[in-house]
Amino acid sequence: MRNHKILLCVLYILSLLLLSSCGVTLREETEVAGREAQIKQVIDSISDETLLGYVKKLSSDSYAGRLTGTPEYKACARWVASRFEEWGLKPAGDNNSFLQSYSNPYTIVFVGGELSYNYRSRGQSRKRKYVYEKEYYPGSQSGDGELKAEVVYVGYGITAPELKYDDYAGTNVKGKIVLIEPEVPVSPEENPELFKEWRPYSLPQYKIKMAVAHGAKGMLFNYLKVNPDIDYVRRFMVAQVGETVVKDVFAGTGREPAEVREKIKSTLKPQSFRTRKTFTIKNFTKHYAKGIGYNAIGLIEGRDPLLKEKVIVLGAHLDHAGFCYEVMPGANNNASGVAVMLGVAVAMAKSPIRPKRSVLFVGFGSAEQGFKGSNAYLNRPVFPKEKTVVFLNLDMVGSGDKLKALAAQNYPKRWEFISEANDKLTHRAIEPILFSNLDRPRLDASIFLNERIPSISFSAYGAPTYSHTTKDTVRTINSKIMGDLARVLYTSILDIANTKKDFFVD
């Protein structure tokens, strides 16, 4: 009888423990279901039309193409900062503000310039004027004035004694206009080790310096887009040109542009020559040497006392090419990226699910002027660089129906969260890409990667793009792809912020 009572007591205690365990399990399941319902509600609140509205605002004429340093750019940065403040983010810029400032000289190009070919026909002096945007652009860092001079073709404009290569050797360019190719004659894909030696010579800033050092007074840069990523030199005249101009320079010389480029690449020997063609470059510009650039920075602080010291950064460059001499709206490049960042920021700010790790939102300036904004941030980071779990970069994410995730394969543990969120939510085609980061910087993510900060950069493709031209307007934007990306990033950033995983090793 005594043993029977003991057995009954044991069974009673076990039944209480089982009921208690079931209660905990049911409570946990209820909490998980409630959390998922809350997250779904936030995801559903991310509106494609709202994101499109941000693009319209950012690419409007009132911000004049968002050239960093201009009053219009500053107004745009302040507008982004006001959104952060309205949504309750913490200021993370200078002096408890949302803006981080840095030095950023800039140049304004006014209407009235000209690029023309001067020649004689039937004993008469004649002039062929090139068509703005279709055939040339004024150099957006050109000096002010007019230059009429012979054009000399100098290949890639490189003087590199250690590579036994000099486009200027034996060629007198003093007082003349040089025609220069972009990049270098070595491909990072075909020969990455050799490219590393040539990489410093691919920068447009270098090409200007070499032209000036050899006595040239002007440059035709074979790159038919507005390009503020060159250095300003007083009275040095610049025009951005396309194949029509290049063919006119080569006409009658017995050479073909494509064949000359291929010969330089195949032999790594210069092919410079006098063209005996006279061109006129006339630009009306004003340079502002004391311009100031701004990053717009807002913070959602993590709720965990320890994990909040680590940060996920979501960023997009806020600037574009300004006006030269018409407005370059920059709807896809990169109002689209900023719009997605803002969409994630407001969703996370209003979400009842708070992140354990901190999340930082940054609109970078000066990506089009040599990435001064991302460099300024990394010189004065809000969090120590080693505390950055990942930098997610958004650049031209609005035109097309597919996405690329550059360097996703470099960081599989981080990519896993994004891939899972996409599979769950949108099933959008997102291609993970392995990225060597050998080429000259073309993304803010490259600057972070140079600092050994894990970075994944998103861009859209599948439709024509018109960056650095007047045609990059809101008409090119697919709001659906921006909305899908914003929903995926909100979910994956929240999961990364709240995971127990450590990210020190991929």
Verbal overview:
The protein is an alpha/beta fold and 506 residues long. The chain folds into 2 domains: 43-104 and 291-498, Aminopeptidase (3-Layer(aba) Sandwich); 114-285, 3-Layer(bba) Sandwich (Glucose Oxidase, domain 1). Helices cover 35% and strands 24% of the residues. The chain has 12 helices and 19 strands. Strands 1, 2, 13, 14, 15, 16, 17, 18 and 19 form a 9-stranded mixed beta sheet that branches. A hairpin with a 4-residue loop joins strand 7 and strand 8. It is elongated.
CATH homology-level superfamily of the largest domain? Zn peptidases
Mean pLDDT: 93
Low-pLDDT parts are none
User: What fold name goes in the CATH topology slot of the largest domain?
Assistant: Aminopeptidase
Strand content: 15-25%
Which bin fits the share of residues in helices? 25-40%
Top keywords for this entry?
single chain; 506 residues; alpha/beta; Aminopeptidase; Glucose Oxidase, domain 1; 8-stranded mixed beta sheet; 12 helices; 19 strands; elongated
